[in-house]
Amino acid sequence: MSMTDTHRAIDAVWRIESARLIAGLVRMLRDVGLAEELAQDALVTALEQWPQTGVPDNPGAWLMTTARHRAIDRLRRHKLVERKHEQLVHEWERQHESAEAVAERTLDDPFGDDLLRLIFTACHPLLSMEARVALTLRLLGGLSTDEIARAFLVPEATIAQRIVRAKRSLAKSEVAYEVPRGEELATRLVAVLGVIYLIFNEGYAATAGDDWMRPGLCEDALRLGRVLAGLMPREPEVHGLVALMEIQASRSRARTDAHGEPILLLDQNRALWDRLLIGRGLAALEQARRLGGELGPYALQAAVAACHARAATAAQTDWPRIAALYAVLARVAPSPVVELNRAVAVGMADGAAEGLALVDALGDEPSLRNYHLLPAVRGDLLARLGRGEEASREFERAASLTRNRREQAMMRERARACR
Amino acid sequence: MRCMVIVKATAESEAGVMPDQELLAAMGKFNEELVKAGVMLAGEGLTPSARGARVTFVGKERHVVDGPFAETKELVAGFWLWQVKSMDEAIAWVRRCPNPMEGESVIEIRPVFEADDFGEAFTPELRAQEERLRAQLDRTAG
After folding, report:
1. pTM
2. Which of A80, A252, A273, A384 is surrounded by the fewest CB atoms within 10 Å?
3. For residue range A187-224, what is the model confidence (pLDDT) as tens digits?
4. Does the structure's ipTM exceed the value 0.90?
5. ∠ at Cα B25 (B23, B31), nearest 5°?
6. B35, B42, B88: residue with CB nearest A9
């Protein structure tokens, strides 16, 4: 193998191994920052040695062994040996088994507990949302600081700062390295799922393909979701989130036209939808259902997405079912946006008048005051009821509220057509 | 990116020799790792080509040929569809795969075309535009 081939191979090994490696090291060292640093050190050593020796048969164990040696060296050299670390070093030295065996044992984590602990730590509520996202991509997605920075369109130094500060806060507050249990698990899991979905949406919202890194975030989020589903197979909402992301991702090829302009769901060419991802999404949704209990917000949104995915044409959409799902969602996770979506579905299922009644009930909702889709939906329903003058005013209003030029043009056009 | 990872057939696989328990267990473990890493999208093993068929196209004609087919090493015995970051990651995963056959065997990795690979000329919108243009020209000419 040439030098560059080996470097690329090491890069790939890092992608595959880094999360497990860091997770195992945190368990030993109880310090996320130190664990990541040592894992990086091991990577640097690999970059130095593997071009000569070739990639070892078990690269994960090799990296773990190297990181452990580094840990001992460093703790000694810096005389930072606090009691807990001192004990650790003694313990490691007393062990007569081979370093490789220890490394294998550390990496051998049949239930993925270490990885789960790392996920819950990276998504800890004491960190800001931005910090959680950066830390999760860094520690679990194996992304470099530079890659994260490019994905979020911010300077690399900003992300680096964010990560450093996040690690510091984790260390300072001595966050327990564990998977929460009982009631805490539910709220902490919401935080984890929220981080993954935010990463997904960050990529999904990027319709202009200036940089391939942004759509790449969808894949990173999907992968994290799939990993989490493997680690927590009994949590219905994890499958719900995976289902939602798989089905949404299935439409990515149909979402924009040749000029990168967005195409609305009902106008999309369904032949471009990715059947494989739809199939995976439906299976994940089924899994969430099979686990029983009431569907959570992600699973409900996935169920709505599934209604669209199952319809061969826009006209075949099962609007009564979508309206019913939104009614449940409005109860489980009430929000004005959900209510507006429900109004659209009801308008399609039961008629424009019924939809309009729901929209009007939202009329003075402060959080929607500047939300262009409220007048857009209202305008659409009014137009269908033959109230052209009123509809036109609503579309004008919608046009004035959106900054997207294409949407503005579309709204103005509809306003004209109604007069 | 997505890759199709293709296990090539061997004389044994074409003869319908099933893998032994040890290999099945090793493959099961490998598949589990792929799933846990969020890499595996799909994967199947295929029956010998004796149970397959081919349709050959010559212009507008179609001919059906029943298996088995001769060129064993070019046949497909099974496949996965993986979601990976790079070809290098796919290669790193394949290196970890147990030898899927007894003796010598080959696994081929082929990236799936992404939308970008087609270039702008192939987007359906542009194609439609071109068709409209051609129809218009036909009318003008006619």
Report:
1. 0.86
2. A80
3. 999 999 999 999 998 887 764 444 455 778 899 999 99
4. no
5. 100
6. B88
